[in-house]
């Protein structure tokens, strides 16, 4: 492998190295990236003949467009390798760091290379050797924060087979799975059917909530919906790329739940609830159970995104201070009971329950954190205002 | 019949759906195996105990659907004769198949029906015609909502239960379903002709306490009288004419055709009864008088409302609405529903040139009551049984 150029990307605060390597060198670490990373593993099936054509072209030495990679956490050995300009260097450090490498652009081309490698290994060893020797250009982003990688991923997503932004977020942040940080742990739903302690969150729910923040939209995006994610790009383009936005997002939300649980004196649903007949389960049986649901988290994300958009908040870093200000004006139990009843009423009449409850929570958090006099960080007033706004939206 | 997906100028005929238990989706294959499979996500818990062929599925639409409106379907007559055990199936909006937020997400009985419905839908087993899907975006995994309009409602009925209803035919329940706001899928076509007041009243009868909550999970449907089941007009009226027609004059005409249909039936029944008396001793003059009488439309309409049904619940309101129009005409106000509706009809048809704008506007209110009255007639019509001189006499149909 040769490192032939180094350029600093001022936008995302990262270094971009241009390398030239053989296909054999590339596949020696790239196939491991795919096999080790479940979110990058899925080959998109297509009836199109484009990739079949590419395979034929590759056998005769056609030059593929540059593949773009990013390396998380800047492993020292690798960063030292990249300083050796125009020297033949081994890819062994890339192989050793394959769990930290993401393919930003060129995932499907990588699959095509792997498939062709397998085919030739079975049918034509001579052609395989020639194939291995053909050269590739590979750009590698190093010394770059996660958020910078995300921005590059979204803006580079102009390939023939687009990956959904949601999918990209999963790839980028899958490191957070099963890690403990600041009393928080993220699970995949299948690993833990009922996450219920404070600090335990469903990974998919958090990803979606973060995406709601970026998109300023509380509605769910399915993994397979291909979007332009213009709003996400806009949101990120205002970031300094110095802080760890995703991590700060989860920590702030966890602090919010902690605060509400404290000031509500650990509210729990009373099964002897009078004055209303629930047709099913209540929305949540305690504060954690209410607020760790996707409806609440997505509503929070969208609300904060919108408040930033309106310049009522200038930075996500302002959120922790606002959380300190929230309080109950009246009896906390009455307020949370009212919240539960409101969510039940929404469930009863909504065309799509999840979406309607997300809308309600968006209005709730927007009212709560806007600083407006009418609500003034009071949870009770935010519940009332949110329901009023929800009903207006529904008319 | 299977469905055809028309996408990016390629038409593909999809046939079979197989369930992938690991990733929880249905994999639907095309008939040629040349096109890639499509995957449809199934997010509910799987309860696959029931055999799909033991159920019938019908598609309806409704102006407003609510995810939590998942109902057990009870047949009125069956419930009355089996001490309340008249459940014949379930009905639910399409979005309830794609969500775990509603009240029935953990209900095993619902989940069994949901699985049957899902399988039937993706294999096109709900229509005898090929179902076309046009211009759907390409996706890696679809949801069931991608394939149907978003106000679709599914009714799944158990064939075994339906055998307990003598001469069951689902078309006979179209008027009842219409009263709740449900219209057959193909007849919907931007339905604009719903009687929202009637729907609200029906919902209240179902147990909706107020605007905010619904406290029922049961819908009761009833069929039309067995004596008029052969009339095709009734099906057309509720599956396409009424849902699509907004003009009040046309709606009145459409509804009045039911009166015409019923009094036509009465004419047949009563004439045969009279002719039967000719086999014994008879007075020719009296017979002629009776025949003349029965040919009179007003006479038959009176008979319809007084003898051929029990009563209509909104009788007073119907009379009031009719009299609001009639009060400014030479016909004047009427005292009973038979005369009132007949006079309105005659006024509109024979003196339309005299109808004012306010009277035409008042027809909107009249039609709302008239629709409810027509439903009562259809449910209660006694056909060939009529009271003569206080004794019940079985007539000849």
Quick recap:
Chain A is 51% helix and 11% strand. Chain A is α/β, with parallel strands linked by helices. The radius of gyration of chain A is 25 Å and the shape is elongated.
Shape descriptor of chain A reads elongated
Q: Count of DSSP E strands of chain A?
A: 8
Largest interface: A-B, 25 and 25 residues
Q: How far apart are the first and last residues' alpha carbons of chain B, in Å? A: 39 Å
- The dominant shape of chain B is elongated
Structural class category of chain B: alpha+beta
Number of helices of chain A: 17
Oligomer: heterodimer
**N to C succession of SSEs of chain B:** EEEEEEHEHEEEHHEHHEHHHHHHHEE
Question: What is the spatial order of strands in the main beta sheet of chain A?
Answer: 1-2-5-3-4
Helices of chain B, by number, come to 13
Instruction: Please state the average pLDDT score of chain B.
Output: 84
Largest sheet features of chain A = 5 strands, mixed
C-alpha Rg of chain B (nearest Å) = 25 Å
> Helix-strand pattern of chain A, N to C?
EEHHEHHEHHEHHEEEHHHHHHHHH
Notes on the structure:
The complex is a heterodimer of chains A (395) and B (397). Chain A has helices at 23-36, 50-59, 76-81, 92-96, 107-123, 125-133, 146-156, 165-173, 203-215, 230-237, 245-263, 287-291, 294-309, 319-325, 332-349, 353-369, 379-394; strands at 2-9, 14-22, 67-71, 101-105, 135-142, 180-181, 184-187, 200-202. With 395 residues, chain A is α/β, with parallel strands linked by helices. Chain A has a 5-stranded mixed beta sheet. In chain A, helix 7 (146-156) runs antiparallel to helix 8 (165-173) and helix 11 (245-263) runs parallel beside helix 14 (319-325). The N and C termini of chain A lie far apart (63 Å). By secondary structure, chain B is α+β, with helices and mostly antiparallel strands. In chain B, the strands form 3 sheets. In chain B, strands 8-1-2-3-4-9 form a 6-stranded mixed beta sheet, with no helix packed on it. Chain B has a 6-stranded mixed beta sheet with strand order 11-5-10-7-6-12. In chain B, helix 8 crosses helix 10 (297-306), helix 11 (315-326) runs parallel beside helix 12 (337-350) and helix 11 packs antiparallel against helix 13. Chain B starts with a strand and ends with a strand. The A-B interface holds A 44-47, 222-226, 276-277, 279-281, 344-345, 347-354, 357 and B 34-36, 64-68, 95, 99, 101-104, 139-141, 143, 150, 211-215, 217.
């Amino acid at each position: 492998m040769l490192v032939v150029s180094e350029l600093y990307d001022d936008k995302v605060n990262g270094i971009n190295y241009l390398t030239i390597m053989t296909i054999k060198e590339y596949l020696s670490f790239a196939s491991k990236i795919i096999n080790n990373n479940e979110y990058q593993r899925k080959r998109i099936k297509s009836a199109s003949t484009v990739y079949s054509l590419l395979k034929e072209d590759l056998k005769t030495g056609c030059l593929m467009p540059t593949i773009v990679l990013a390396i998380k956490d800047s492993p020292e050995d690798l960063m030292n390798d990249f300083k050796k300009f125009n020297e033949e260097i081994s890819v062994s450090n890339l192989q050793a760091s394959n769990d930290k490498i993401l393919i930003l652009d060129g995932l499907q081309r990588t699959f095509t290379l792997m498939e062709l490698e397998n085919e030739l290994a079975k049918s034509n060893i001579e052609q395989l050797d020639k194939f291995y020797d053909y050269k590739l250009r590979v750009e590698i982003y190093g010394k770059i924060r996660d958020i910078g990688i995300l921005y590059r991923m979204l803006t580079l997503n102009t390939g023939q087979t687009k990956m959904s932004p949601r999918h990209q977020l999963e790839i980028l942040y899958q490191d957070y799975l099963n890690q403990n940080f600041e009393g928080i742990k993220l699970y995949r739903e299948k690993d833990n059917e009922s996450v219920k302690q404070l600090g335990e969150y469903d990974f998919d729910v958090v990803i979606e909530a973060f995406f709601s923040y970026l998109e300023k939209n509380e509605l769910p995006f399915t993994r397979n919906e291909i979007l332009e994610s213009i709003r996400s790009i806009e949101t990120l383009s205002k970031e300094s790329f110095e802080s760890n936005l995703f991590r700060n997002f989860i920590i702030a939300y966890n602090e919010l739940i902690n605060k509400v649980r404290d000031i509500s004196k650990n509210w729990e649903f009373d099964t002897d609830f009078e004055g209303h007949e629930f047709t099913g389960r209540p929305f949540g049986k305690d504060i954690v159970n209410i607020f760790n649901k996707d409806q609440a988290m997505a509503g929070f994300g969208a609300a904060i995104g919108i408040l930033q958009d309106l310049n009522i908040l200038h930075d996500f870093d302002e959120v922790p201070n606002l959380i300190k200000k929230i309080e109950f004006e009246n009896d906390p139990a009455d307020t949370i009971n009212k919240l539960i009843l409101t969510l039940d009423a929404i469930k009863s009449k909504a065309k799509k329950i999840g979406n309607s409850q997300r809308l309600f929570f968006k209005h709730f958090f927007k009212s709560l954190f806007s600083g407006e006099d009418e609500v003034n960080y009071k949870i009770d007033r935010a519940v009332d205002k949110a329901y009023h706004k929800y009903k207006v939206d529904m008319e | 019949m299977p469905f055809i997906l028309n996408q990016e100028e390629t038409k593909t005929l999809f046939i079979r759906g197989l369930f992938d238990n690991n990733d929880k989706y249905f994999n639907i294959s095309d008939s040629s195996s040349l096109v890639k499979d499509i995957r449809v996500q199934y997010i509910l818990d799987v309860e696959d105990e029931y055999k799909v062929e033991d159920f019938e599925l019908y598609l309806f639409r409704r102006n407003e659907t609510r995810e939590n409106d998942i109902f057990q379907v009870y047949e009125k007559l069956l419930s009355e004769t089996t001490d309340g055990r008249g459940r014949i199936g379930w009905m639910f909006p399409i979005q309830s198949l794609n969500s775990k937020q509603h009240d029935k997400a953990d209900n095993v009985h619902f989940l069994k029906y949901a699985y049957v419905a899902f399988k039937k839908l993706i294999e096109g087993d709900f229509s005898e015609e090929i179902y076309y899907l046009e211009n759907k975006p390409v996706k890696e995994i679809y949801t069931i909502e991608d394939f149907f309009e978003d106000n679709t409602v599914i009714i799944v009925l158990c064939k075994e239960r339906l055998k307990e209803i003598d001469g069951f035919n689902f078309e006979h329940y179209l008027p009842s379903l219409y009263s709740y706001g449900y219209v057959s899928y193909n007849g919907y076509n931007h339905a604009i002709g719903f009687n929202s007041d009637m729907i609200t009243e029906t919902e209240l009868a179902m147990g909706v306490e107020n605007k905010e909550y619904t406290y029922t999970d049961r819908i009761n449907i009833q069929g039309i009288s067995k004596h008029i089941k052969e009339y095709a007009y009734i099906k057309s009226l509720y599956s396409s004419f009424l849902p699509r027609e907004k003009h009040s004059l046309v709606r009145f005409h459409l509804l009045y055709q039911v009166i015409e249909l019923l009094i036509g039936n009465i004419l047949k029944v009563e004439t045969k009864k009279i002719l039967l008396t000719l086999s014994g001793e008879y007075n020719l003059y009296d017979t002629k008088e009776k025949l003349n009488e029965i040919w009179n439309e007003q006479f038959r309409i009176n008979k319809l409302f007084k003898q051929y049904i029990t009563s209509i619940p909104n009788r007073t309101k119907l009379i009031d609405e009719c009299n609001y129009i009639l009060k400014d005409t030479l016909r004047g106000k009427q005292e009973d529903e038979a005369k009132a509706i007949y006079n309105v009809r005659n006024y509109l048809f024979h003196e339309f040139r005299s109808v004012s704008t306010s009277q035409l506007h008042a027809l909107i209110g009249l039609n709302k009551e008239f629709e409810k009255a027509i439903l009562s007639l259809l449910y209660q019509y006694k056909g060939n049984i009529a009271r003569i001189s206080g004794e019940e006499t079985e007539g000849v149909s």
